[in-house]
Amino acid sequence: MPREPFLPMLRELARCYQAFEAYSGAHVRSLGLTPSQFDIVATLGNTPGLSFKELGEKTLITKGTLTGVVDRLEAQRLVRRSASPEDGRSMIVSLTAAGTRLFETVFPAHLDHLRLALGGLEAARMQRCEAELRRLRDAFEAAPAAEPSPALPGRKASRRKQ
């Protein structure tokens, strides 16, 4: 089978993300937060609050995980939920005073940590990299949705009893 020319790029993209997660996550945990908690606190910082939908779109957290992370941050009195003034069915998540103080401490500390790894890169190089990553994301978003695959030869399709 011929080797696809995009496989080395995808492998490097995955390795880059794993390296970032390891580097960033270790520092975030040293600050007393999980990466998901940090993501929410950082996203809510300097905002009046966001709906769950907005928070899900702006973070890297799946919908199923988001509620649990917000629950734990709320139990620590770092965030609060309130009814949306525009839509009573929607909840707004915002930082409490303690959450704002935490954001004002951990966010600059984490930027300093990231600067240790990325600060030596030239601005123009980072802009080119960002543009290439955006093009790659656009290619995935423009691609047609996958069709369900037929069962592989030699394997039986799973059967559900109804």
Tell me the name of the CATH class.
Answer: Mainly Alpha
Distance between the termini: 40 Å
**Protein structure class:** mainly alpha
Give the fraction of residues assigned to helices: 55-70%
Question: Can you walk me through this structure?
Answer:
With 162 residues, this protein is mainly alpha-helical. It has a single domain (7-123), classed as Arc Repressor Mutant, subunit A (Orthogonal Bundle). The chain is built from 6 helices and 3 strands, in the order ααβααββαα. The chain has helices at residues 7-30, 35-44, 52-58, 63-75, 97-118, 123-142, and strands spanning 50-51, 79-83, 91-95. The chain has a 3-stranded antiparallel beta sheet with strand order 1-3-2. A hairpin with a 7-residue loop joins β2 and β3. α1 crosses α5 (97-118). It is globular and about 60 Å long.
Explain the layout of strands and helices.
Layout: H1 7-30, H2 35-44, E1 50-51, H3 52-58, H4 63-75, E2 79-83, E3 91-95, H5 97-118, H6 123-142
Antiparallel strand pairs: 1-3, 2-3
Helix pairs in contact: 1-5
Core attributes:
single chain, 162 residues, mainly alpha, Arc Repressor Mutant, subunit A, 3-stranded antiparallel β-sheet, 6 helices, 59% helix, 7% strand, globular
A few lines on this structure:
The chain has 162 residues and is mainly α. The chain contains 6 helices and 3 strands; from the N terminus they run ααβααββαα.
